[in-house]
Amino acid sequence: MGQVLKSVFIVFCAMLLLMVPVCAGQPYSYIYIQGDKTAPFYVKMEGKMQPRYGKNYCIISELTPGTVNIEILFQQNVYPAEKFTIVVPENGARGFLLDKHKDGYALYDLQKKDYIMPGEVAK
Length: 123
What we know:
By secondary structure, the protein is α+β, with helices and mostly antiparallel strands. It has one domain: Immunoglobulin-like (Sandwich), CATH 2.60.40. Helix content is 18%, strand content 46%. It is built from one helix and ten strands; from the N terminus they run αββββββββββ. The strands form two sheets. The protein has a five-stranded mixed sheet, with no helix packed on it. The radius of gyration is 21 Å and the shape is globular.
């Protein structure tokens, strides 16, 4: 009986060790964009419309590190579309507020506390 328990324990420990890389987390990041309640928006990333779960926010998940090109489109085209390039961090998140400026909309980076204007690359 002792030998059987020892074998089961060794197999259990081996399975735990094999699962550590899986449980350590996926190498994905995400971007969160929050808008105001007056201008519902959509997000198009690399030419593909992203799912819309709410009128005033967007979560783009399972992103790999690097840059992504997004386009903010406004409901019923009340404002012209705005294009941004965002640097996706490794295993992390970036949060932005979509903010109205005199010439259109800009993204306010919540981590860096700085504005990204359309056409600029978010560092």
